[in-house]
């Protein structure tokens, strides 16, 4: 199976097995350019309070600002960052319902609609490599994740049979799963070791044959990056694809774009269309992504805060 189909099958399986927020293709770095294939964010004690605010990602700059749920603050005095970034964070926080706005003498003042809670616990990153005989930059990617310690656990998921030679090339802290995307069977070859997320870490920025460029990431920088990662996962989810406009495609119960003609999950943007020999033009099959996600995960599409704001707006229609 191609890596895209493997990734979607794994996401669907994780969503079915775990009470967690599952997302994919997220930035897992502080200053580098690391993209994590799959991320599982496990709920913490304040998860219900977070879910009640908004179904979307809340910008970390807004969360870290001096805006609180008490007295409204003049927005330009509440952010300690670049003015353009502050304005973008302000508008996003207003749009998603985390901030509400007041006008005083032609100035914009804002307050939080709810106090931001401590809502997530462990974060697990999963690197997908169906075929270990074609590892690419796998060792460097996993070493980057382990040395930085941004997530609590790092796991390698593969469809290959894992040999001793494979294990020797994979950092010892990385867990290993053999996963069959067709049946959902998963064998834990090696348990992951918990990483020190509360301490500083070493971020590998570039690794070559002659030298490796690294940077120390402080514990504070990692906390901010973890918050960014968790918030992005909450708002994004993993069903970020469109089904192809083809009569043959039959989305399964988890919403995966399965093509009977190819006999596998397809990547619509690359594999579907007039160039495909089995293409039968048709309307895109319905895929209620929000309904599927709400039924299969703790994510809340219509939180109390959103419903309350919508009811208030009805008075002005």
State the main characteristics:
alpha+beta; 10 helices; 13 strands; disordered C terminus
Descriptive overview:
It is a single chain. By secondary structure, this protein is of the alpha+beta class. The chain has three domains: 3-47 and 122-236, no CATH class; 59-112; 258-314, no CATH class. The chain is built from ten helices and 13 strands. A six-stranded mixed sheet has the order 1-2-6-7-8-9, with helices on both faces. Strands 3-5-4 form a three-stranded antiparallel sheet, covered by helices on one side. A hairpin with a 7-residue loop joins strand 1 (21-27) and strand 2 (35-43). Residues 310-317 have low confidence and may be disordered.
How does the helix and strand content classify structurally? Answer: alpha+beta
Name the shape in a single word.
globular
* Rounded mean pLDDT score: 91
Proportion of residues in β-strands: 15-25%
Q: Gyration radius, to the nearest Å?
A: 22 Å
Could you write a compact summary of the structure shown?
This protein is α+β, with helices and mostly antiparallel strands and 317 residues long. The chain has helices spanning 3-17, 47-51, 60-63, 83-96, 138-148, 164-169, 219-236, 268-271, 289-296, 304-314; strands at 21-27, 35-43, 73-74, 99-104, 107-112, 120-128, 153-158, 175-179, 186-190, 201-207, 212-217, 258-259, 264-265. It contains 10 helices and 13 strands.
